[in-house]
Design goal:
The complex is a heterodimer. Chain A has helices spanning about 5-45, 50-55, 65-100, 105-115, 120-135, 140-165, 170-175, 180-210, 215, 240-250, 255-285, and strands at about 55-60, 65. By secondary structure, chain A is mainly α. Chain B is α/β, with parallel strands linked by helices. Chain B has a single domain, classed as P-loop containing nucleotide triphosphate hydrolases (Rossmann fold), CATH 3.40.50.300. Classes of the chains: A mainly alpha, B alpha/beta.
């Protein structure tokens, strides 16, 4: 009964073919990532040094370091997170745990999806109108971060909502059946088990916020500043805009400089992703069902 | 005392004092499709009330209605009158008070993703007990009663959701007991539990009877015979017959279908 028939052979051939096909697609996917990283390290690696990271640019930005841009990006991302994470997580909890399934909720969900699809330049112009002009924040870290926060809110909301919904409903019902209120259930059972997923959303947001250029160009990021920002109402330099500037706007920049800036930008994102993945694995190991 | 559906009215008058649950004309629909129709029965204080019947008879829906679980399922509609200690639970707004007085155990065990200790300490905590020593006592007593203490006493800090199916079911029972419920509802609890443990839990239920009222839905006819004081037979969304367990099982049924089900002719 175990002799190989023609049908078995054909099936196995097909199965091998598809396996190889899918593997090739996967390799194709990571090829650009490797090429980009390789090029950046090859062309920009030489310029990276402690001095490069921690000194101001000099000679009309054709020499010196990138400290003000690095510092500014950290500011922008931190303030954006401070605004969007509490709002996003709260909205996700409402949508996942409280909202009744009716037309109003469906419209909100639709709006969130649409918000995620709005081009960043449109967000930028909205930011100018709303925060810079209407709220009179001027071009400042605050205006730029608020613009970034609004742009990335859908990411946080959707990721948080998904991870909340991944907690089985049976857990909630078991809690409710004991007489627990919705909030008691959320705090004691649902949230602790959704934290790792929420964190993923936050990290996705950090990565995206770090790299965005258009939304901050008109709202708070400056071409060049001789001083570091002193507070959220100051303008700041930012890595992403700095990369754009040294690549296209300033004559006489040595070739390694823009590659170096890009390398720092990518490294920042990769490091933050790695930390978050490690943290998530730690949380996953602790919580399981 | 024999209580049939038709004479409930009179009996209610006589034993109003000891009625725990009083269900009148209960009908349950899911998206308009009936699951239970016009059930009238009562459950007395400190009795084990058995409900037997084949699949799709409406047994589980009946239990869900008692704990207001219709609120979790948007298409579940409940009509009729259910009184708990004389209070209409479909008019009361404080469902939390109701649910904390009713412990439920469903066929599929739900070990919450908390430690074993926290699984059992959760209900007491919800009711405001903070004292560690007090919680320790409750946890030990409830796990003991659910026949789980000996197996888990050395690893109370490991996750409840990682226990085996049978252990999780006993954890679920321990959790229900930690509510110190007035009514304990069990829905085919023995599906996930091995026969030896089932017998141990059955012994515990007999003891608990002096402290609480137990509603036992079971697909094991013999389990109802062993435990229940009175038994109701549900079939296709109707309560066919309610009677003294001893009478039902000694051939003194009113309906032929009850007789047939008990004898295993269908089911």
């Amino acid at each position: 009964m175990f002799e190989i028939s023609d049908l078995n052979k054909r099936n196995q051939k097909k199965q091998k073919l598809f396996q190889i096909l899918f593997m090739l697609m996967t390799l194709l996917l990571i090829a650009p990532v490797l090429i980009i990283l390789g090029t950046l390290i090859y062309k920009g690696g030489s310029i990276i040094s402690v001095d490069f990271l921690f000194t101001h640019p000099t000679d009309g930005m054709t020499a010196g370091g990138i400290f003000p841009a690095l510092f500014g990006t950290v500011w922008l991302v931190a303030v954006a997170l401070l605004v969007s994470v509490p709002i996003g997580v709260a909205a996700a909890i409402y949508l996942s745990e409280y909202a009744p399934d009716n037309w109003f909720t469906r419209i909100i969900n639709l709006a969130i999806i649409n918000l995620a699809g709005v081009p960043s330049i449109v967000h930028a112009l909205f930011g100018v109108g709303a925060f810079v002009i209407f709220f009179k924040f001027g071009t400042s870290i605050l205006a730029a971060s608020l613009t970034l926060a609004i742009m990335t809110l859908p990411v946080v909301i959707v990721a948080s909502r998904e991870s909340l919904q991944a907690v089985p409903k049976a857990f909630r019902e078991a809690c409710w059946n004991m007489g627990a209120t919705r909030w008691q259930t959320i705090r004691r059972v649902v949230l602790p088990n959704a934290v790792s997923g929420i964190l993923t959303g936050v990290i996705l947001e950090v990565s995206r916020t770090t790299g965005e250029t258009a939304p901050i160009m008109f709202t708070g990021a400056a071409f060049f500043l001789p001083f570091l920002p002193q507070g959220v109402f100051d303008q700041t330099m930012a890595l992403s805009l700095h990369l754009f500037v040294v690549s296209t706007q300033v004559p006489g920049v040595p070739e390694a400089l823009p590659y170096g800036v890009a390398l720092v930008l990518i490294a920042m994102v990769l490091i933050m992703n790695s930390i978050s993945i490690a943290f998530r694995m730690y949380l996953r190991g602790k919580k399981k069902w | 005392m024999v209580v049939a559906a038709k004479t409930t009215e009179a009996v209610t008058q006589n034993t109003a004092q000891s009625l725990k649950l009083d269900v009148r004309n209960l009908s349950i629909h899911y998206s308009g499709i009936p699951a239970l129709e016009n059930v009238t029965l009562d459950v007395r204080e400190n009795e084990i009330f058995g409900i037997i019947g084949p699949a799709n008879a409406g047994k589980t829906s009946f239990l869900k209605a008692l704990n207001r679980m219709d609120m979790f399922t948007s298409n579940m509609k409940v009509q009729g009158d259910i009184r708990f200690n004389g209070y209409d639970i479909y008019k009361s707004r404080n469902i939390y008070a109701l649910r904390s007085r009713i412990g439920v155990v469903f066929p599929l065990p739900v070990g919450l993703p908390l430690t074993i200790y926290e699984n059992v300490a959760l209900a007491p905590r919800l009711s405001g007990i903070r004292n560690k020593a007090e919680l320790d006592v409750i946890v030990e007593r409830c796990l003991e009663r659910a026949a789980l203490w000996d197996e888990v006493k050395d690893r109370l800090d490991s996750l409840g959701s990682l226990l085996s199916g049978g252990q999780q079911q006993r954890l679920t029972i321990a959790r229900a007991l930690s509510q110190e419920p007035e009514v304990l509802m069990l829905d085919e609890f023995s599906i996930a539990v091995d026969p030896v443990t089932t017998m141990r839990i059955e012994d515990v239920l007999k003891e608990l009877k002096s402290e609480m009222t137990i509603v036992l839905v079971t697909n094991l006819v013999q389990q109802a015979r062993r435990l229940a004081d009175r038994t109701a037979f549900f079939l296709e969304g109707r309560c066919v017959e309610i009677g003294d367990t001893e009478e039902l099982f000694t051939g003194r049924t009113k309906e032929q279908s009850t007789q047939d089900y008990i004898e295993g002719k269908f089911g």
